[in-house]
Write a structure and sequence with these properties.
This protein has one domain: Histidine-containing Protein, Chain: A (2-Layer Sandwich), CATH 3.30.1340. The protein has three helices and four strands; from the N terminus they run βαββαβα. It has a four-stranded antiparallel beta sheet. A hairpin with a 2-residue loop joins strand 2 and strand 3. The longest helix has 13 residues. The model has no long low-confidence stretch (mean pLDDT 92).
Length: 87
């Protein structure tokens, strides 16, 4: 299992777009990938799941993956989230 933390920095106008793109990027990997916020966890390949986390600007998220490409998945999603202001 691989995991890493990142601060979600995204303007309110582009948050939903960033989350939708995150789902697309996560879906490209075979590994099981989860986003953790506080004490809640959601499947990173599920738009509804991620929306249910109530992710806001400046929230600390943990990207967690398990599977054959978990290291690449975490690295890719962390890189995306660091540059998530897709306005």
């Amino acid at each position: 299992m691989h995991k890493a933390n990142v601060v979600f920095a995204c303007t309110e106008n582009s948050q939903m777009k960033a989350i939708a793109l995150l789902v697309q990027k996560a879906s490209a990997f075979e590994s099981s990938i989860y986003i953790l916020k506080d004490d809640r966890r959601a499947n990173a390949k599920s738009l509804l799941g991620l929306i249910s986390l109530g992710i806001d600007d400046k929230d600390t998220l943990c990207v967690q993956a398990e599977g054959s490409d978990s290291e690449q998945a975490v690295a890719s999603l962390i890189s995306f989230l660091l540059a998530a202001d897709v306005s």
